[in-house]
Amino acid sequence: MNKLYDSPKAALAGLLHDGMTIMSGGFGLSGNPESLIPEIKAAGVKDLTIISNNAGADGFGLWHLLQTRQVRKMISSYVGENKLFEQQYLSGELELEFNPQGTLAERIRAGGAGIPAFFTATGVGTVVADGKPQETFEGHHYVRETWLRADLSIIKAWRADTEGNLQFRKTARNFNPVMATAARTTVVEVEEIVEAGKIDPDCVHTPGIYVHRIVKSTTNEKRIEKLTVRPRE
């Protein structure tokens, strides 16, 4: 099975439709699928549900899909650094399902592992727990959270071999590996493609069985979201 595609547009061909759910990797601006997001914008699909830790930053990443009003609902953890996200949510234009960050990661992991629900202490006694079943275990209260799955995951890795085994670099690893497991189809953009067997098995972070399509990334801007410096002595 050939998993290699010539362009981001070709890698998404036949996968996009209105009303679909998409997982998008990244944390802040680290590990964003910078080449695939513009092709979703260009396709014009709308009423999307996007599962992502955040929605990019002003003028970058998933922000572009918010700008074109293609997103109906965000399932995420962080709204900061994105004024458009904030404005659309507060005006009622955008539906938002907030999650504690660890809970979001575990819901995605559960989706990939085939676990429909789990209990966590995070959120008990807050609005996060409103309307959700709760149980007591060994004298402690827990709230039930359900898995997250998607029609499509778009993720970014550093290297892939031709069989789809993936290697990530440092903080770009973030949500990408778990999202690769939790969608019907996973499309990955990578900076480097090598022959099968060229990645040390101990360095494979995501096995190729989870990856359906691979494309060489066309954008590797890796913008710094907040640059903090000190004057030279």
From TrEMBL:
The keyword Endoplasmic reticulum does not apply. Keywords: Transferase. It holds the Pfam family CoA_trans. GO terms for molecular function: transferase activity. InterPro entries: 3-oxoacid_CoA-transf_A, CoA_trans_fam_I, NagB/RpiA_transferase-like. This is CoA transferase subunit A. It comes from Sphingomonas daechungensis.
